[in-house]
Write a structure and sequence with these properties.
alpha/beta, five-stranded parallel sheet, 10 strands
Length: about 525
């Protein structure tokens, strides 16, 4: 449908045109109204309708004067005049300022339909011309994005200015939008579909800001947005756009906003800068707008700082995923701060994964192919993705280690229980037990609780008190003797422990036998 803007100083006549003419049946919708030429010009500048139907005789600014100004700025808008004066001079004036036709008051519905059909045909021709021009502008800017030869760039710039009737001295700015590949690849939507939806979304946004833009599609889901430098949005307008994209599209987009302003012959510099800014996505993550000023003072290092691999591998061998993840995340935060080059990080990550897989004494964890893993690391879009890939490999490694340790741990726990069963009357500590099975105290506590459901301390207490109940049947034994026989030097501690677990004192228990 095409939009129409109505202008008439007679309020009743304006309402009649707006409400009683069946515009929608003719494929037209009313986008706004005004009561004089000056008011109309202000609204038309903001609304940009396809068609304008205006009265000729109006106060403040008549229709002819208004039409001349519109024709100077928006020669693609289609003008129709409405007049109650069937005089040749008015008709001639209307046609001289580019009017498609005119209507006489009172309006005749059949006559309106005939004129509208002619106007719609002109609108379609204008649309085709605009599409052709936009395609030509897009192709020229795309060539300029890669052209570094000054002579060739000058020829392209001249062609662009002839096409658009713009000055060769105009300066331009650029933003580069990139559909984040991981989000874009899905069964329901292709990258090309996402790109088309992104362009439509951006076009609506910039038109709402009255910013004229040219969209240039590049490879891999990237879209360049060119505009005259004087029109480019401010910081907060860009942030508004980022928020709108996050809420309005079901895929994520990262954008780079350049700080340069150049003439057409230097467009390749704009493209180069925004490409470099977009690389910051590797550190900042996806789904945001990255400004040139935000990265101007960043570090840029190729030296990878040391990583405490010994502690990290200890956490993995002890199946402590949380600890391993925390240590790795802290290290990756440092990599982001230092802006270590991506290739160096990828090489380091591959080396770390290699060492991890070698420690497993098999090529790779189950279900993972080493070549695919390396490929994923080198093709990761962000630093977080590399971190996640390493953690995923570590998680698979821990699962494999856990399976291997299951039988081994069962035997270790059985050995610990046997030591306790046979030596309960002796001083027993977690350190003495861990020394016998060659495990750290914390790890021994963990696997014992996992396999038995109780702690080592509780198990030792249970064995000692069970033996104590047997000894209480011998009336010749004093409570102090029984306490020492089951491993307690302190009689008072033994009595309190017995009461806590049995609900009665040793003497009360003996009397109940």
């Amino acid at each position: 449908m095409y939009s129409i803007f109505l202008v008439d100083d007679e309020e009743i006549g304006l309402e009649m045109m707006r409400d009683y003419i069946r515009w929608e049946e003719m494929g037209i919708y009313v986008v706004g109204t005004a009561s004089n030429g000056r008011e109309a010009l202000e609204k038309i500048e903001a609304i940009r309708p396809d068609i304008i139907l205006t009265d000729v005789q109006m106060p403040i600014m008549n229709g002819i004067e208004m039409a001349k100004k519109i024709h100077e700025s928006y020669d693609w808008m289609q003008l129709m005049f409405l007049t109650g004066h069937d005089e040749f001079n008015y008709v001639k004036s209307a046609l001289n300022v580019g009017a498609v036709g005119y209507l006489l008051k009172p309006l005749d519905l059949n006559e309106i339909g005939s004129v509208i059909a002619k106007v719609k045909q002109r609108c379609e021709e204008v649309q085709m011309k605009k599409r052709s021009m936009e395609a030509a502008k897009t192709n020229l800017l795309k060539e300029l994005s890669y052209e570094k030869n000054a002579e060739h760039a000058a020829d392209l710039a001249t062609s662009y200015c002839k096409l658009t009737r713009e000055s060769e001295r105009n300066r331009y700015a650029m933003a580069l939008f990139s559909i984040d590949p991981i989000e874009a690849e899905g069964e329901q939507q292709s990258l090309e579909d996402c790109k088309n939806r992104l362009v439509a979304f951006l076009d609506h946004f910039f038109k709402s800001k009255n910013i004229e833009t040219v969209f240039v599609p590049y490879k891999d889901g990237e879209v360049g947005v060119f505009m005259e430098a004087r029109q480019q949005p401010g910081y907060y307008a860009w942030e508004d756009l980022a928020a709108a994209i996050r809420s309005g599209l079901d895929f994520t987009v990262t954008a780079a906003v350049g700080a340069q302003e150049t003439e057409l012959t230097e467009v390749h510099c704009l493209y180069k800068q925004t490409r470099e800014i977009l690389n910051e996505r590797f550190y900042k993550g996806t789904g945001s707008i990255i400004h040139a000023l935000a990265i101007s003072n960043q570090f840029d290092s190729g030296h990878v700082p040391p990583f405490n691999r010994k502690e990290w591998f200890e956490a993995i061998n002890q199946l402590d995923f949380e600890q391993a993840a925390q240590k790795l995340h802290q290290y990756f935060e440092g990599l982001a701060t230092l802006r270590i080059k991506k290739k160096n990080i990828c090489d380091w990550a591959i080396d770390l994964v290699d060492e991890l897989l070698e420690q497993l004494h098999q090529p790779v964890p189950e279900g993972v192919k080493r070549a695919e893993l390396y490929h994923s690391i080198y093709n990761a879009l962000t630093l977080n993705e590399i971190e996640d890939l390493i953690l995923g490999t570590a998680g698979n490694a821990m699962s494999l280690l856990g399976e291997r340790l299951m039988d081994k741990n069962t035997k270790l726990v059985h050995k610990v229980r046997s030591v306790i069963d046979q030596n309960f009357d002796q001083p027993i500590t977690i350190n003495s037990l861990s020394d016998q099975v060659y495990l750290s105290p914390n790890y021994l506590r963990s696997i014992f609780k996992d396999k038995t459901g109780i702690t080592i301390h509780d198990y030792l207490t249970r064995i000692r008190l069970d033996k104590a109940t047997e000894l209480l049947a011998d009336g010749s034994l004093k409570i102090q003797d029984i306490a020492q026989r089951v491993g307690y030097e302190s009689t008072s501690y033994f009595i309190s422990l017995f009461l806590k677990n049995q609900g009665v004192t040793p003497n009360e228990y003996r009397k109940s036998l």
